[in-house]
Amino acid sequence: MDLDALRFADFSKLSTAVADWTAMATKLWELESDARGDMGGKAAKANWAGVNATVTREFIGKTAKEFADAATEATSIGNILRDTHGELVGYKARLNEAISRALEKNLTAVGTGDGGFTVTVNVHPDRAAKGHTVPEHTEADATAFRDEVQRILQGATESDTTAAQALTMLVDQTPYGFSDAAYYDRDRAADAMKDADRIAKLLKTRGDDLTPEEFDKLNSDLARYKDDRLFQEKLATTIGPRGLLDFWADLADPSDGGTLQRSRHDKLGDFQHNLSLTLAGATQSDSPAMRTWEKDMVRLGEERIQTRGSQVYGYQIMSNLMRNGDWDDRFLNDYGNALVATEKKAKLPAGYWNGGIPPVPKMNFTGEDFGRDPMTGFMKALAGSPHAATEFFNTTRPTDNAQHVLGDRRTFDDTPLDSKDGNTAWDATGAALVAAATGVDPNSATRPDDLSHEHRQVLDRSLKYLSERGDDFPSEMRDDMAKILSTHSDVVHHSASSLADDENDPRLLDRRQLLEVSKQVSRSQDAYGMLNEAMNHEMIKDIHADHPSDPKETLLRSGATVGFLEEARYEALKTDKDDASWNAKWLYHGFGGAANFIPVVGDAAQRGIDALAYQWQLDEQARINAETTRQNGETFTARERQLQALADEWAKVNPSGGNSRYVLTSEINGAAFDGNQKAQGLAGDQ
User: Fold this and answer.
1) What is the DSSP letter of 406?
2) Which of 262, 274, 279, 626 has its CA 20 to 30 A from that of 213?
3) Nearest to 251 by CA among 233, 267, 234, 227
4) Series of mean pLDDT values for 10-residue runs along the chain (686 residues)
5) What is the three-class DSSP state of 257?
6) pTM of the model
7) Contact present, 212 and 260 (Cβ < 8 Å)
8) CA distance 683 to 671
9) Residue 32 · residue 68 · CB < 8 Å
């Protein structure tokens, strides 16, 4: 800050800017309230259908959020400008006060024109007016005055510079929109950027040579700033993609004999978690610096990063730093497409992703897996970003991602210390697939809303590639496909109860693929229970809400779906007939968070659900000790209570149907048998 610029500064324009931004923020918050409460509220309550259900509602939701982001950004800018104005006015007053005090000792400060200043006497003694003496001063007085002016100018410079940096980063984060980064004063923004710079340089220069105390401080700082947008971007861009990969490779490799892994091994998971949140937040910025960072990180994925004792691929390191947080959709798809292309080209993971000999034993500290399979961490990131997941599994160029991940890819055991656990890559892939097909993070408490054409596309593609695996269907994904089929229960029920293939029916799934996947789902008790509970809800909802030209259609379709599900159950039992656990395969206990994927029915229908669920469980318990044989004859004894409950519910909804309970029960039993026979044909059974 130039001496004369501060001394004679006119801050009236800055004061006006503060007032203008404050007024703008106030107005934007009013608009945000209107958009959220009025427009958004009406959109949420509307009974959307067709294009409106996917396009208009989404547009309104995004528009309401844009008002919130605009109001937040305007508030942050106003707060930073207000603090900066106050600080600069204060520094100006302090400077002039210091100069006034110095004049009493015949000292003054003069700018040198190059941003500097010099301390000199105000009036030379030889030039004093006749009869006047000038005040005296000591060398210490001059030094103290010089230091005070220097401190004031440095403080003003920092205030002005950090405010400019914060404002620039805020605006650059979203060139075509508004940032949701909230700052209540300039100091917080300035401190965030200074701490990010300090931490990034420390990670880059020290690596795992950090002392335990330094490590603890870094971990605490990362946790404190996990939601700070400016901190996140500053840290990521300062350390850079290569610096980040070098740091984690160095930290993970214990071959250098460093003490940090041993002394803080129980803290490494927390540190990885906090660093992942920070990096995820950084990718939400659309600034040129972060776009370059993302491109460079994708490019470095194929490179081998040298540690002191081995080598690891960039994908392996970065994927382990992607396990938490909300990652930018564009970055996730660029990264994922490149990862799939690399695996296809190198025929990985058949090579077990061994970057060096000996391999780095462990790169992940947040779970049981060693972190050698980069698909695991990437899929965990994808599960937290449903829009990105949907795009990823529907992408066919440059490679068909779903075909590679769900069909062709062969995983390896990344938890060699536990032979009884599941495969973590399949676990993560299942969660990502749920997000892609339902539009929600399966780890959240969010219930799926309107399903789009893209969600249906993911369902179709997943049925195709997973059904082709046959009995090699990953057991870790049975519950995930149960969630997906439950969410899409409308088309599942429609397809399971269809009489024939019909290429002109857009609701119809491939029934052979559906049967095979339903069979694989039915090999797990919880997944089987979830799928059947969802179908029970859907059948009751159909009986209450659907209005075909002939009401009997809902009765017969319910029977046909029951028959279809019984065939899937039988095929599963036949496959696992040597599995002793099937002898006690039914103790229904609900599915916790998975209930979010079960269809919602109205109050009137819920009473029917309760009755149906009870009868269905009685059927399941009754056959625990039964042999694994197909039920023959037109009376479907394995599910006779379930079918009776469905018939009773249909009669309640259609009191003028004119049929007795006996006739209705006979008809739904016949439909179940017919549906079972058709499913047998789809399965190829004779």
Assistant:
1) I
2) 279
3) 267
4) 90 88 84 70 55 56 70 81 89 94 92 88 70 80 94 91 81 64 70 93 90 94 91 96 95 79 90 97 92 98 90 96 97 98 85 77 92 96 98 96 96 82 92 98 89 97 98 96 97 97 96 98 91 95 93 97 95 81 55 76 89 89 66 70 96 90 95 95 76
5) coil
6) 0.81
7) yes
8) 18
9) yes
CA-wise closest residue to 540 among 429, 615, 627, 436: 615
Quote the CA–CA distance of 128 and 121 in Å, as a whole number: 12
Using CA atoms, how far apart are residues 535 and 217, in angstroms rounded to an integer?
A: 52
Query: What is the structure's pLDDT at 626?
Result: 61
Kindly write down the DSSP assignment for every residue of 577-622, as one continuous string: TT-GGGGG-------GGGGGGSPP--HHHHHHHHHHHHHHHHHHHH
Phi, psi of 676 (to 5 degrees): -65, -40
The per-residue pLDDT for 162 is: 83
Which residues does 429 contact at the CB level (< 8 Å), separation at least 6? 375, 379, 405, 406, 474, 477
Structure-derived torsion over alpha carbons of residues 525, 527, 530, 531, reported in degrees to the nearest 10: -110
Please tell me the distance from the alpha carbon of residue 247 to that of residue 505, in angstroms, as a whole number: 55
Q: What tokens does 561 get?
A: 């779906």
Burial bucket for residue 125 (CB in 10 Å: 0-12, 13-18, 19+):
exposed
Q: Which helix (H) or strand (E) holds 552?
A: helix 552-575
Alpha-helical segments (H) within 207-301: 212-224, 229-252, 260-263, 268-283, 288-300
Q: How far is CA 392 from the centre of its chain?
A: 14
Degrees to nearest 5, angle at CA 549 with 547 and 550: 95
Omega prior to 398 cis, within 30 of 0: yes
- Rounded to an integer, what distance in angstroms lies between the CA atom of residue 33 and that of residue 37? 6
Structure tokens, 135:
């005040």
Contact 402, 429 (CB under 8 A): no
Q: Are 597 and 455 in contact (CB under 8 A)?
A: no
574 neighbors 506 (Cβ within 8 angstroms): no
306 φ, ψ (degrees, to nearest 5): -80, 125
Q: Which pLDDT score, from 0 to 100, does residue 237 have?
A: 96
**Other CB atoms within 10 A of residue 382 CB:** 31
CA separation for the pair 627, 147 (Å, rounded): 94
Rg (alpha carbons) of the chain, rounded to whole number: 34
Coil/strand/helix, residue 121: strand
Specify the pLDDT at position 66.
73
